[in-house]
Amino acid sequence: MDRRTLLTGLGAAGLGATGLALVGCADSGESAADGATPTGAAEPGALPVTIEHQFGSTTVKSAPQRIVCVGLKEQDDLLALGLMPVGATQWLDFGEGKVLGSWAQDKARSDSLETDITVLSQDDGIQFEKIAGLRPDLILALYAGLEQSDYDKLSRLAPVVAAPKGLVGYGIGWQQQALTVGKAVGRPKQMRRLVDDVKTKISKAADGHPEFAGSSGLVATLYEGIYLYGPQDPRSRLISELGFELPAGLAEITGKEFGASISTEKIELIDTDALIWLVSPSNGDFKKLSTDKLYRKLRVVREGRAITIEALSDLDNAFNFCTVLSIPFVLTDLVPKLAAAVDGDPSTGR
């Protein structure tokens, strides 16, 4: 399992497909009365714009018409604005030739539009030649583990917007990612409204469950032992926004990565008020762990505080994405599960 596939807690492989997408042919969900900018246009005064990032800065001079997503989920942010990329990297298994999850598909004009997007595989690294063939005028690489050499090659093809300085690879939060995309395509005000709406939904969920505040929470999977997702991982960021506190020392364990493995000798680290497993219950290693004496003695297990999100389910995919589009879907399903976990009553179920 490599660094990218570890992001899912599952190791879902990407599938390749070809085709050409249209830019700006999705419904943004905002009417003219909402102040939405017409499809394909930038907001007045929004461009040109210079965006600082980990490799320096990038200037976008005019509204991009052929956007390629090298990052794994920026297509959601574009779609939220009523835009579509000409190419996007497939990360999760939405089906052959698909790069939109179920929560995003109703934002697209039709299923045929989605399959028109040229799908980029990540199996053997960035497909530079395929990207060049798409003639991009903007490349988004925010939720990515970009190296300097990757950035240099991509920059020869089009302006590249990479992750901000100071973040681990794949460590950008959903808000910063969305706002950066909005800025890059000349839609900062529209994206700010969308982000604020999702922030309100998160706040309402947290306010509706004051028991979340101060409770400890953690997201984990199985890889070379128990793999813990760190503070910068988008999933960890989301449960923190709901009021949960990540275990002390987690940042030191994960270091400069989005997560890290621990041995079962340190299993007490997962003994939290709510534990979210990103792993299929049928996973052989998970079955083995579930019968481990040390694991079964943990309070998180004895009191039924562990949540298992079924691999490849809509919730699993949406939680892995953690975008301005997927988070409302996540809240609907995950919040009740977290409430049942925090109450410490095994009979409430997960």
TrEMBL record:
Alphabetical keyword list: Signal, Transport
GO biological-process terms attached to the record: iron coordination entity transport
Record's protein name: Iron complex transport system substrate-binding protein
One Pfam family this sequence matches: Peripla_BP_2
Organism the protein comes from: Microlunatus soli
Gene Ontology, cellular component aspect: outer membrane-bounded periplasmic space
Domain of life: Bacteria
Domain Fe/B12 periplasmic-binding: 66-342
Main location: other
Protein's UniProt keywords contain Chaperone: no
Protein family per UniProt: Belongs to the bacterial solute-binding protein 8 family.
